[in-house]
Amino acid sequence: MTTKDEIVRDWLPRYTGRALDAFGPYILLSNFGLYVELFASKFDVEVLGRDRPMQSATAQDITIVNFGMGSAMAATVMDLLSAVGPKAVLFLGKCGGFKKTRVGDFILPIAAIRGEGTSNDYLPAEIPALPSFRLQRAVSATIVEHHLDYWTGTVYTTNRRVWEHDQAFKDYLTKIRALGIDMETATIFIVGFANHIPKGALLLVSDNPMSPEGVKTSLSDRAVDEKYVRAHLEVGIDSLIELRDSGESVKHLRFE
Q1: CA–CA separation, 228 vs 222, rounded Å?
Q2: How far is residue 30's CA from residue 55's CA, in Å, rounded to a whole number?
Q3: How do strand 88-97 and strand 26-30 relate by DSSP bridges?
Q4: d(CA 154, CA 178)
Q5: Neighbour count for residue 181 (Cβ, 10 Å)
Q6: Residue 95 in contact with residue 55, Cβ under 8 Å?
Q7: Which of 133, 137, 187, 228 is buried deepest, with most CB atoms within 10 A?
Q8: What pLDDT, on a 0 to 100 scale, did the predictor assign at position 126?
Q9: Can you tell me the distance from the alpha carbon of 220 to that of 226, in angstroms, rounded to the nearest whole number?
Q10: Residues above pLDDT 90, as percent of the chain
Q11: DSSP code per residue over the chain
Q12: Using an 8 Å Cβ cutoff, are 206 and 221 in contact?
């Protein structure tokens, strides 16, 4: 194999156990198997890839993929998805919330700060990590239709998973006025742009890690799953259905 296209067309089925023609044109991304299981149960479809790095399910032109955790895996899945040329990719992630956000809130990011470093292998560091506007607009409208609300602003993406003890890092996060922190959003935005894939994100605040009592625990994470994940998934599904049924292209930027 000598070209990127040859590689990704071979590797996407290898990582997922799903044939290329079994992917829907609209993609939901998640870090957690629960989202895939709930999606499969809702539409009564099979989960593929239980023995692979990435699990997936497809229904109504939508494929949901659990790609794992972290910016390296986020970059990998966005590269691999270039094999099927999605019409839209929406990331349903969890994040730590800052400022006035509370557990269970939604954050619809308008941009992400590239603190992870992975995206530097794709585009120069000064290029901002931005979502596709049409996709974020669809998510915004869908949240309102569900009689819910959201915060909007900039999130910081990091490679560090354990930082909650580091006061200097927390002071830095306060200084840059980020609304939340995660490990994937900036990477998905940049690698999506590099691959000409329309992309967006809707983040669920799963903890408030700037205070010791707000740091995520096993118990608090289970509570978030029980209370908020279904609504998060439903908004994601309905946002892509709105795009699918509208027939509008999500691409609004010229890449050449």
Answers
A1: 10
A2: 10
A3: parallel
A4: 5
A5: 26
A6: no
A7: 187
A8: 94
A9: 10
A10: 91
A11: --SHHHHHHHHHHHHHS--GGGS-SEEEEES-HHHHHHHHHHHT---B-TTSSSEEEEETTEEEEE--SSHHHHHHHHHHHTTT--SEEEEEEEEEE-TT--TT-EEEEEEEEEESSGGGGTS-TTS-B---HHHHHHHHHHHHHTT---EEEEEEEES-S--TT-HHHHHHHHHTT-SEEESSHHHHHHHHHHTT--EEEEEEEEE-TTSGGGS--HHHHHHHHHHHHHHHHHHHHHHHHHHHHH------S---
A12: yes
pTM: 0.95
Residue 252 has pLDDT above 90, yes or no: no
Cβ contacts of 67 within 8 Å, gap of 6 or more: 29, 30, 31, 53, 54, 73, 74, 76, 77
Quick one: 4-246 is in which CATH superfamily? Nucleoside phosphorylase domain (3.40.50.1580)
Tokens of 253: 């930027």
Measured distance CA(7)–CA(83) in Å, rounded: 9
* Res 1: pLDDT: 80
In the chain, pLDDT over 70 holds for what percent of residues?
A: 96
Give the whole-angstrom CA distance, residue 139 versus residue 204: 13
Distance of CA 80 to the CA centre of its chain: 15
The residues, any chain, with a CB within 8 Å of residue 119's CB and separated by 6 or more, are 71, 75, 129, 186, 187, 189, 190, 191
